[in-house]
C-alpha cells in the first residue's frame, strides 16, 4: 500500500513538472480536491496559475530575440508593492541589439531610474519567460526592424567576444632516404600565429620557421612574417588594420607594406552581396606537403595523400596571385601559381565600398624598402545594374591610377572592364609609363547547373609596372638592362568553371570542373596551367555508389611540361569502407595502384595502397588522419623500390586562454574566430558531433566558426554520460572576425535522488513549492508530504526551497548520497 501511495505521489510531481514546463494558458485554475494530497490546506499552486509568472529575483538567462540567440546575461524580476507578482526589468542595453527602426526605438520607455526598459508600446512586441528552461523570449514584428532579411544577423547583434590569448600552429616534418645515398634528409617547418584580443582589437603576430638537415650539415630559419592589429567596425561594414600586412585591393596588385589600412569588409554584408574565397587544386604524385604562400608569407600548409587535392578553406580576403609548392616524398618539388582575382567589382545601388591605405613597402624580413605611399580604391553603385570603380596609388617614385565600369547583365551574368596607368621613375632618370587593360566576367547558370566562377583577360603594355615590379627593379636589378623586363607580364587569360551534367538524375549526373590560365611575358616567356576533373557516381548490380573520377593537370613553363593525370575508381565494401584502383601518370611515368580506405571512425581515418610502375618497380603508401579535440594529425609513409623511402606528417593545433579557462583545440585557420564553451566544470562533454570535448576543467574551444555568420553550437545529448544532463543543449551567436566568443551551457553532473523535505517543526513545504539551485534554476517541484525527485545534484550542494513568492529555506545534499537513493533533507533558514 505504501509503495502504491508513493507511486501516486511521484506521478503527481511529474504531472506538475510537465504542466509547468509547457504552460500555454495565461491563467489556469486548479481543483485542488482532484489531487491526491494528504493535507489540502498545504497547497501552493500559485506558481502555475500564470504561464509567465516568475518569482522575484535575478536569473541567468539566454535571450532569444525573434528566434535568434543573443549573449546570455543576468536579468532581474522585481517585486512590486510586496505582492506575489513580479515585473521584468529588461536591461536597456538589449534594445540596441534588437535593431529597431529609429522611430520605433523612440517608443521604448525607461523606468526604475532608467535601469529597466519597457517595450510594451512597440506594436506587436511580446515577451515571455521560461525561467525553468533558462530562456527569455522576445518577439518583435519584422516591420519594426531596420533589416528585412530573416536569414541574416544584423550588426547590432554581433558579438565582439571577450579578452584572451591564443596560439595557433602547424608543424610539418619529413624524413627522406634516397636509395644509393648514404645521407638521410630531414626537414621540419612550422607556421603559426600568436595573438591577443583586447576589447574589439585583435593583435596578431604571424611566424614561420624551417629546419633542414642532410648528413652532417643543417640550416634553420625563423621569421615573424607579419605583426599587426585590426579592429572590426561592424556598424560601418569595415575593418581598420595597422602594422605589417599585404595590400588587399580590388584594383591594384598586392604587395607587402607597413602602415595602416581601412577598408570595407564585404563579409559583413548580407550573403547575396558577398564575394568568394579562392580555391587551389592540384595532383600529388605521392604523399606530399602542400604550401600556399603569397609574397613569401605562408598562408596555409598541410600534408595530403597521393592523388588529386583541393584546398578550399583559404580566407575570402585573400587577393592577388598565390604561389603553390608541392613537396613530394621522393624529394621532388613542383610549383605553380593560382590567380585569385575577384569576380567583377559590383556594388549595390547607392552604396560605396572603399579601401584606403598609407605606409611604406617592406621586405619579408620587415625592412622598409621603397617610397612612402598612399592608396585608395572604391566601388560605387551608381544605378541598379551599374558600378563605377577605380583608385589611385601615389608614392612619388611610383604612381598609378585605375578606372573601371561594372555591369550586372542579369541572366547573362556580370561583367567589368577597367584600365590602369602606371608611372615609375628610377635613379638613372629612366621613366617607365604604361597601361594595363582588364576584363572580368562571372555567371551562375542555374537552369544548366553550371557556373563560370571567374573568367578574366588582362593585357599590359611593355612599360607598365606594378609596385612589386618597380621595387624589384629599383632595389635589386635596376642597373641590369638585359634583365629589366624579366617577370613583366604581357597577356593573361584565366577561367574557372564547373558543370553538372544530367543533374536531375543522380545515377546519371556527372560533375565537371575546369580551370585554365595563360600568362605571357615581354621577354617571350610564357606559362600555361590547365586543370580538368570529372566525377560520376553509379551502380554495378547490387553494388551501389561506385565512384569514377578523372583529374588532369598540366603546367607549361619555358617550354617544359609538367603533367599529372589520375583515373580513379572507388567501390564501397561496407559501412564507410571502400577499395579503389587508380591509374596515375606523372610526366609519362605510369603507375597502377590499388587501395583500401577505412572511414568507420570519423576521427581516425586511414588508407593503404600498393602498386607497380611501368618499370616493374613496386611501391607502398600509407596515410592516416587523427582528429582529436586538441588537434589534428596527418601522417604518411611511402616506399618505392630502388628509389626512396619516406615518412612525414603535419600536426595542427591551437591553444586559447581567457578569464574562464584554457583549452587546446583543433586549428582550422591561424588566428581566426573561435568560440570558448563552458560546461559548468563537467569534463568529457561532446560538442558538435564530437569535434570537441570539454577538458578536465569543463572548457572546450570550437575553432571552425565563420565570422559574421550565425552559428549553432550543440551538445551531443545522446552521447552524454548517464549522470550528466544538459539543460540548454544549443547556443547560438554571431561573432566578429578574430573574436574569442564565450558561451555557457547549463550542464549538471550528479546523482538522482528521491528526497523527503522536512521543515524545522517537522512539517513539510506546501505541495507545489519549487526547488532551485545556486544559479536560480528550478530543479524540481515538491510533492505531497515533501516528496521530491531531484536530478543532477552533487554532494554538499546547497538548494533553495521557495513558495508563496519567496525563498523560505535551504537544504544541503548529503556528502555520501547515492544515486536513486531516498533520503531525508532538513530544510533550514
TrEMBL record:
InterPro entries according to UniProt? Fimb_usher (IPR000015), Fimbrial_membr_usher_CS (IPR018030), FimD_plug_dom (IPR042186), PapC-like_C (IPR025949), PapC-like_C_sf (IPR043142), PapC_N (IPR025885), PapC_N_sf (IPR037224)
Q: Which domain of life is it from?
A: Bacteria
Kindly indicate where the leader peptide sits in this chain. 1-26
State the name under which the record lists this protein: Fimbria/pilus outer membrane usher protein
Q: Does the keyword Transmembrane apply?
A: yes
Annotated PapC N-terminal domain ranges read 29-172
Q: Does the keyword Hydrolase apply?
A: no
Q: Which UniProt keywords apply?
A: Cell outer membrane, Fimbrium biogenesis, Membrane, Signal, Transmembrane, Transmembrane beta strand, Transport
What is the membrane topology here?
Answer: Multi-pass membrane protein
Task: Give every PapC-like C-terminal domain span.
Answer: 757-811
- Coiled coil start-end: none
PROSITE patterns, sorted = FIMBRIAL_USHER
Record-stated family: Belongs to the fimbrial export usher family.
Q: Which Pfam families match?
A: PapC_C, PapC_N, Usher
Where found?
A: Cell outer membrane
Amino acid at each position: 500500500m505504501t509503495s502504491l501511495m508513493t507511486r501516486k505521489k511521484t506521478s503527481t510531481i511529474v504531472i506538475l513538472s510537465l504542466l509547468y514546463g509547457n504552460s500555454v494558458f495565461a491563467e489556469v485554475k486548479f481543483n485542488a480536491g482532484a489531487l491526491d494530497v494528504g493535507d489540502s490546506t498545504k497547497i501552493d499552486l500559485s506558481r502555475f496559475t500564470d504561464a509567465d509568472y516568475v518569482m522575484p529575483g535575478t536569473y541567468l538567462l539566454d535571450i532569444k530575440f525573434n528566434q535568434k540567440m543573443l549573449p546570455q546575461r543576468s536579468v532581474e524580476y522585481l517585486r512590486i508593492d510586496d505582492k506575489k507578482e513580479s515585473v521584468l526589468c529588461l536591461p536597456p542595453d538589449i534594445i540596441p541589439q534588437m535593431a529597431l527602426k529609429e522611430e520605433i526605438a523612440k517608443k521604448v520607455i525607461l523606468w526604475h531610474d532608467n535601469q529597466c526598459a519597457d517595450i510594451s508600446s512597440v506594436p506587436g512586441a511580446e515577451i515571455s519567460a521560461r525561467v525553468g528552461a533558462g530562456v527569455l523570449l522576445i518577439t518583435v514584428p519584422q516591420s519594426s526592424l531596420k533589416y528585412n532579411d530573416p536569414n541574416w544577423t544584423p550588426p547590432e547583434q554581433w558579438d565582439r567576444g571577450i579578452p584572451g590569448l591564443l596560439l595557433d600552429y602547424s608543424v610539418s616534418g619529413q624524413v627522406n632516404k634516397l636509395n644509393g645515398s648514404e645521407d638521410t634528409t630531414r626537414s621540419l617547418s612550422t607556421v603559426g600565429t600568436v595573438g591577443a584580443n583586447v576589447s574589439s582589437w585583435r593583435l596578431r603576430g604571424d611566424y614561420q620557421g624551417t629546419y633542414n638537415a642532410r648528413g652532417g650539415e643543417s640550416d634553420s630559419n625563423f621569421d615573424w612574417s607579419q605583426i599587426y592589429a585590426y579592429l572590426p567596425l561592424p556598424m560601418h561594414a569595415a575593418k581598420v588594420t595597422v602594422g605589417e600586412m599585404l595590400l588587399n585591393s580590388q584594383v591594384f596588385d598586392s604587395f607587402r607594406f607597413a602602415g595602416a589600412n581601412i577598408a570595407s569588409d564585404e563579409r559583413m554584408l548580407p550573403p547575396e552581396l558577398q564575394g568568394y574565397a579562392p580555391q587551389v587544386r592540384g595532383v600529388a604524385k605521392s604523399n606530399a606537403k602542400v604550401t600556399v604562400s603569397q609574397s613569401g608569407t605562408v598562408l596555409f600548409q598541410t600534408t595530403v595523400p597521393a592523388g588529386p587535392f583541393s584546398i578550399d578553406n583559404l580566407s575570402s580576403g585573400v587577393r592577388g596571385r598565390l604561389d603553390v609548392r608541392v613537396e613530394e616524398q621522393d624529394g621532388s618539388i613542383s610549383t605553380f601559381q593560382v590567380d585569385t582575382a575577384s569576380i567583377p567589382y559590383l556594388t549595390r545601388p547607392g552604396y560605396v565600398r572603399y579601401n584606403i591605405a598609407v605606409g611604406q613597402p617592406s621586405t619579408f624580413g620587415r625592412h622598409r624598402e621603397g617610397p612612402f605611399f598612399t592608396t585608395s580604391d572604391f566601388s560605387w553603385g551608381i544605378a541598379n545594374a551599374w558600378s563605377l570603380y577605380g583608385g589611385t596609388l601615389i608614392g612619388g617614385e611610383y604612381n598609378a591610377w585605375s578606372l573601371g565600369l561594372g555591369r550586372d547583365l542579369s541572366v547573362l551574368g556580370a561583367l567589368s572592364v577597367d584600365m590602369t596607368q602606371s608611372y615609375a621613375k628610377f635613379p638613372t632618370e629612366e621613366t617607365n609609363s604604361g597601361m594595363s587593360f582588364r576584363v572580368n566576367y562571372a555567371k551562375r547558370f542555374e537552369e544548366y547547373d553550371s557556373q563560370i566562377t571567374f573568367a578574366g583577360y588582362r593585357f599590359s603594355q611593355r612599360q607598365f609596372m606594378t609596385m612589386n615590379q618597380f621595387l624589384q627593379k629599383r632595389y635589386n636589378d635596376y642597373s641590369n638592362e638585359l634583365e629589366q623586363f624579366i617577370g613583366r607580364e604581357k597577356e593573361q587569360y584565366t577561367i574557372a568553371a564547373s558543370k553538372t551534367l544530367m543533374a536531375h538524375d543522380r545515377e546519371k549526373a556527372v560533375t565537371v570542373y575546369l580551370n585554365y590560365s595563360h600568362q605571357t611575358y615581354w621577354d617571350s616567356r610564357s606559362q600555361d596551367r590547365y586543370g580538368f576533373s570529372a566525377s560520376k557516381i553509379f551502380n554495378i548490380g547490387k553494388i551501389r555508389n561506385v565512384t569514377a573520377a578523372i583529374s588532369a593537370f598540366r603546367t607549361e613553363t619555358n617550354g617544359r611540361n609538367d603533367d599529372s593525370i589520375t583515373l580513379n575508381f572507388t567501390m564501397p565494401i561496407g559501412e564507410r569502407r571502400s577499395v579503389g584502383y587508380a591509374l596515375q601518370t606523372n610526366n609519362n611515368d605510369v603507375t597502377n595502384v590499388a587501395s583500401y580506405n577505412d572511414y568507420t571512425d570519423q576521427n581516425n581515418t586511414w588508407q593503404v595502397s600498393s602498386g607497380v610502375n611501368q618499370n616493374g618497380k613496386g611501391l607502398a603508401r600509407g596515410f592516416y588522419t587523427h582528429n582529436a579535440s586538441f588537434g589534428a594529425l596527418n601522417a604518411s609513409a611511402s616506399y618505392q623500390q630502388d628509389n626512396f623511402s619516406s615518412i612525414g606528417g603535419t600536426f595542427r593545433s591551437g591553444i586559447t586562454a581567457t578569464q574562464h579557462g584554457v583549452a587546446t583545440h583543433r586549428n582550422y585557420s591561424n588566428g581566426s574566430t573561435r568560440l570558448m564553451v563552458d560546461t559548468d566544470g563537467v569534463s568529457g562533454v561532446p560538442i558538435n558531433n564530437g569535434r570537441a570535448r570539454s577538458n578536465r576543467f569543463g572548457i572546450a574551444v570550437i575553432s571552425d566558426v565563420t565570422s559574421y555568420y550565425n552559428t549553432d553550437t550543440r551538445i551531443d545529448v545522446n552521447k552524454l554520460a548517464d549522470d550528466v544532463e544538459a539543460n540548454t543543449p544549443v547556443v547560438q551567436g554571431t561573432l566578429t572576425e578574430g573574436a574569442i566568443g564565450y558561451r555557457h551551457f547549463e550542464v549538471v553532473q550528479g546523482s538522482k535522488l528521491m528526497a523527503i523535505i522536512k521543515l524545522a517543526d517537522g512539517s513539510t513545504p506546501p505541495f507545489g513549492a519549487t526547488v532551485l539551485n545556486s544559479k536560480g534554476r528550478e530543479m524540481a517541484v515538491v510533492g505531497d508530504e515533501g516528496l521530491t525527485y531531484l536530478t543532477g545534484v552533487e554532494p554538499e550542494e546547497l538548494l533553495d526551497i521557495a513558495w508563496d513568492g519567496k525563498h523560505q529555506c535551504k537544504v544541503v545534499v548529503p556528502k555520501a548520497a547515492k544515486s536513486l537513493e531516498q533520503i531525508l533533507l532538513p530544510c533550514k533558514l
